[in-house]
Structure formats: structure tokens, C-alpha cells
Amino acid sequence: MPNWTEQTLHVVGPKVELDCFIRTGYTRKSREQFDNLLHFDRLCPLKRGEPKSTYTHDNGVVLIHFRTRTQASFSMITSWDYPAEFYARLAKRWPTLSFACSVNGEMGDFGGMIVSIEGKTVSLVRDYDGDYVRRQHARQIARALRDWGAFLTRGRDYRLLADEPWNHRSLACDAHFDDDFWFYFSNREDVARFRARYKSRLVMRRDEDGWRTARVPPTS
Predict the structure, then answer these.
(1) Domain 4-153 belongs to what architecture?
(2) Annotated domain spans of the chain
(3) What angle do CA 207, 153, 110 make, to 5 degrees?
(4) This prediction's pTM
(5) pLDDT tens by residue, 75-103
(6) Which residue of 105, 130, 150, 199 is 20 to 30 Å from 209, comparing CA positions?
């Protein structure tokens, strides 16, 4: 049995480009397949003459996938390591999309995250070896998470907690979401439509003092 590397990849951007990303790289298991797969070699094809070994993996096994119109999430595993070169190429291959991916080795020997916002990529995956400085790494990740959170919530001053969104293949809404399953909306009407269709709770609105509980009347 290999040691598995866990990854949760978030992809954010316009619906047309997100649809193309999923059509290009994601396949559900068929009679000939055992697993749902995200194909790294299809999403970022190697150039002519590049060795096949450029990518440590051709694909990842997707355990959980769900999406909204403007964001998709893939919780997946790869054996032994993670496809670092694939993540390094995502922003250039898909310039209208932004990405964030957490990486955790099963044995606790490496981990971190990769964040690519509007074309700028920061890789913070580190080996936990003798030269590793935990405090420095934690500060770097905290800064990257703040940047990603600011990007996700830009212009989206309403949020709610969704109940078990992973039970839906697709959530028909323009919403961004984080790993705590807060869903962020740009207006109250979108929140009301979401609540009418999906189970959720704790609606909040952001003002100059932060997030506060808000009331959203049902749609007529």
C-alpha cells in the first residue's frame, strides 16, 4: 500500500472557463474505471519533447467533488507525493482561473499549500526535515490564506453556512466558498434563492465592523 498525499484543490473563475476546466480534466468512473479522476496531463499538457516523467502523476483520485457556477472543489489523493509541476503550470495554462490547494503527506513528512490568484502563484509546500522552521512556515501560510480569503470575498458581503453541500454535484448559484463551507454571495437576492433550494443556516452580512447576523426574507 502506498502512502497517500491528500490534496484539496479549489478552482475559481468565470462559469464558462470553469466548465471548460471540468470538461477537460475531470472524469467520473466508468465500467472500465474504479475511481473518479482529475487528469493533470490533460489540464496542463506537456510540451513536445518534454519527458513524461515531468509529472510525478498523470492524475489524482477524486474522493469528493462539488461546485457552484463560479467555483469547484476537488478533494483527492495521489500516491507518495504531489504533482508539484502540474500546480506550477496551472496559472499559465488557465489564466482566467485562480487556484488554492492544500497538500498533506499521510506520514506527516511534508505539507503546505499552493495559492495562485489572478496569475500570481505562491508555493508553500515544505518538507518537514531538519531545516524546517515551523513558525516561519505558519506565518507564510497564514498570509496566503488571508490573501485567498480576501479574493474569495471581494465584492461578496453576504454569507451563510451550507449543510452538507458535497451531497450535490452542482449548486446552481453564483457563490464562492471556503473550507469551512461558508458560501459568499454578492447580494441578498442570491442568498434568498440559495436558501429556498438548499439547506443552510446562519446568514450574515459584512459591514465596516465585520460580519453580523442578518435576516433574509424568502423569495416570493
Answers:
(1) 2-Layer Sandwich (3.30)
(2) 4-153, 158-213
(3) 130
(4) 0.94
(5) 999 999 999 999 999 999 999 999 999 99
(6) 199
